[in-house]
Amino acid sequence: MTNKAVISLTTGLEDPEKVTVAYLVAVGAAESGRPTLMFLTKEAVRLALVGTAIGVACDGCPPLGDLVKRYEAAGGQYYVCPVCFNAKHLDGANLIAGAELQGTVPMWAWIGDGATTFSY
User: Fold this and answer.
1) What is the mean pLDDT of each run of 10 residues along the chain (120 residues)?
2) Who's near 28: CB < 8 A, 6+ residues apart?
C-alpha cells in the first residue's frame, strides 16, 4: 500500500476558495510525510508561475502565499501540464520551486503502484 497523494487542480485564481482548499489538502498530505504531487492543468498552470499564487480567498482563509511556502517546505512537487502551459504562451523560466513541465505519462510513472487522489 502506498502513502502517496496526488491533488489534481484545474482551477486558477478565478476560484480562489477552490485553490485554497486544494492547497490545504496538499499541505496536509505533504506535512504529514506523504510524497505529494499537485498536477496543475487548465487555468491552474498559472499558479506555477512566480508571484501568481497570492492573496486571501475568504475571511479566515490562510494566505495562499503562505500555503505555497508550506507546501514547498514540506517537499511538495508540482507537475504542470505542458499542453495547457504552452497553449497559454507562458514562460517556463518563471516556474516556482518544485514545479516542472510534465504531462500524464510522467504523472502515472510518479504514481507507480498507487496514490490517494483528490481533484479540484
Assistant:
1) 89 97 98 98 98 94 97 98 98 97 98 96
2) none
Please give the domain boundaries of the chain with CATH numbers for all domains: 5-119 (3.40.1260.10)
Measured CA distances, 14 to 5, 19, 30 (Å)? 25, 9, 25
3-state secondary structure of 69: helix
* DSSP 8-state symbol, 11: -
pLDDT in tens, 90-117: 999 999 999 999 999 999 999 999 999 9
Q: Which three cell numbers stand for residue 34?
A: 506523504
As a whole number of angstroms, the distance between CA 69 and CA 46 comes to: 16
Give the separation between CA 70 and CA 59, rounded to whole angstroms.
20
E-only strand ranges, the chain: 5-9, 36-40, 77-80, 99-101, 116-119
